């Protein structure tokens, strides 16, 4: 049986490895084109491409999967099954109908919630207590296909998008390992999604990254960890971008001051206390413009921020 794998970031690598470790015949890997990275802007292969090349698997990197030439290139591998994980492009009907066992996707949410390109970030930013991975048949809509299997992953207060990404990547690969034998043997009864319960997780925008200090402290705490390690939440300090990488979970105490939201209340080695819409938030790791990320205690020793400074302007 010929398997074609489609994926791009680190999230997808364990799923590809699982297919290979379980002895599936991965005849080709489809991934996004190489992108420039780093200060030198050198073209860099995707993590999935790098993994495929280690195993001598042919790699295709179509700019647009809908291109008829790209479709025929995939058809040339006679896929019986297509497995995708964070590939980054929507599959056209001509590809969806190609393999006899269908196209399945390892999606990073508990569908139908958080369909779309940034489900992990949005789940954390919304303060969800649990997320998970859903394996589903792919359809022409955005993450609308029938669900095959799923696994839940708790979100703790200490989790960030980075830690959940790692947990979900491994959990998705293990779920794929357990699901495929039943799927290929025809023992799966896929469950349609309830569209009325669907929510969407669009790709992160610049507005999503900007901190609005008038919001509740807990909302900001979730926003900050939901954008860690990429792309990072930010505010402004003296008109320049000031990134915030971590904060302490706020308590339930009410605001002790009538200061404008965004006002720095105090700076200690424990953190930077900033007025919010319903109290205050302690920032612990930040990144001033032109500097590396650092703890607030390190920033305090080199460039302390005076109380009364207003962030966001």
TrEMBL record:
Keywords assigned: Protein biosynthesis, Transferase
Domain Formyl transferase C-terminal: 203-303
UniProt key word Transferase: yes
Keyword ATP-binding: no
Reaction it catalyzes: L-methionyl-tRNA(fMet) + (6R)-10-formyltetrahydrofolate = N-formyl-L-methionyl-tRNA(fMet) + (6S)-5,6,7,8-tetrahydrofolate + H(+)
Residues binding (6S)-5,6,7,8-tetrahydrofolate: 109-112
Residue span(s) of domain Formyl transferase N-terminal: 1-178
GO molecular function (one): methionyl-tRNA formyltransferase activity
Role, per record: Attaches a formyl group to the free amino group of methionyl-tRNA(fMet). The formyl group appears to play a dual role in the initiator identity of N-formylmethionyl-tRNA by promoting its recognition by IF2 and preventing the misappropriation of this tRNA by the elongation apparatus.
NCBIfam families: fmt
UniProt record similarity statement: Belongs to the Fmt family.
Name this protein carries in UniProt: Methionyl-tRNA formyltransferase
Organism: Paenibacillus hemerocallicola
Gene (UniProt): fmt
């Amino acid at each position: 049986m010929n398997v074609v794998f489609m994926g791009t970031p680190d999230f997808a690598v364990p799923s590809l490895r699982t297919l290979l470790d379980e002895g599936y015949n991965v005849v080709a890997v489809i991934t996004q084109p190489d992108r420039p990275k780093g200060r030198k802007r050198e073209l860099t292969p995707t993590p999935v491409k790098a993994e495929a090349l280690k195993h001598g698997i042919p790699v295709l990197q179509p700019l647009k999967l809908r291109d008829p030439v790209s479709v025929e290139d995939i058809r040339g591998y006679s896929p019986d099954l297509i497995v995708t994980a964070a590939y980054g492009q929507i599959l056209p009907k001509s590809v969806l109908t190609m393999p006899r066992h269908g196209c399945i996707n390892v999606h990073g949410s508990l569908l139908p919630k958080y369909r779309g390109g940034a489900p992990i970030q949005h789940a954390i930013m919304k303060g969800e207590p649990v997320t998970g991975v859903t394996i589903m048949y792919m359809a022409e809509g955005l993450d609308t296909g029938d669900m095959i299997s799923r696994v839940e992953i708790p979100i703790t207060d200490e989790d960030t998008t980075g830690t959940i990404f790692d947990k979900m990547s491994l959990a998705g690969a293990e779920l794929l390992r357990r699901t495929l034998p039943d799927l290929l043997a025809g023992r799966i009864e896929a469950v349609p999604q309830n569209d009325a319960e669907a929510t969407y997780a669009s790709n992160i925008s610049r507005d999503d990254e900007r901190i609005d200090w008038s919001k509740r402290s807990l909302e900001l705490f979730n926003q900050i960890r939901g954008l860690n390690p990429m792309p990072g939440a930010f505010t402004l300090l003296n008109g320049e971008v000031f990134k915030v990488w971590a904060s302490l979970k706020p308590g339930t105490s009410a605001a002790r001051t009538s200061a404008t939201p965004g006002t720095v209340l105090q700076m200690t080695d424990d953190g930077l206390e900033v007025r919010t819409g319903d109290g205050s938030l302690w920032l612990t790791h930040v990144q001033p413009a032109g500097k590396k990320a650092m703890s607030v205690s390190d920033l305090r020793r080199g460039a302390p921020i005076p109380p009364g400074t207003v962030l966001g302007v």
